[in-house]
Amino acid sequence: MKYVYYLQSIPHPDQHYVGLTTDVNSRLASHNAGQSPHTSKYRPWRILTYHAFADDAKAAAFEKYLKSCSGLAFRKKHFH
């Protein structure tokens, strides 16, 4: 199972991050421990939402979509 997750920075609420993982809780812990260079300066993070996919290709496609310009509009409309 693959999960597409959407994070929000607690001290910087305008900062968000979209990622793909097989374990949401351990990935959040990794972000909050500063192990990702893309998210370390905005930690700690909280999960806004995550979505499970049985198909790895569909999960990767959804993550890519959420990172696109139209995906940004989708995120603002549905996840905020």
Describe the structure.
With about 80 residues, the chain is an alpha+beta fold. It has a single domain (about 1-80), classed as GIY-YIG endonuclease (3-Layer(aba) Sandwich), CATH 3.40.1440.10. The chain is about 40% helix and about 30% strand. The chain contains three helices and three strands, in the order ββαβαα. A hairpin with a 6-residue loop joins β1 (about 1-10) and β2. The longest helix has 11 residues, at about 55-65.
- Which homologous superfamily in CATH is the superfamily? GIY-YIG endonuclease
Can you tell me the CATH topology? Answer: GIY-YIG endonuclease
Major β-sheet profile? 3 strands, antiparallel
Runs with pLDDT <50, length 5+? none
Indicate the percent of residues in helices: 25-40%
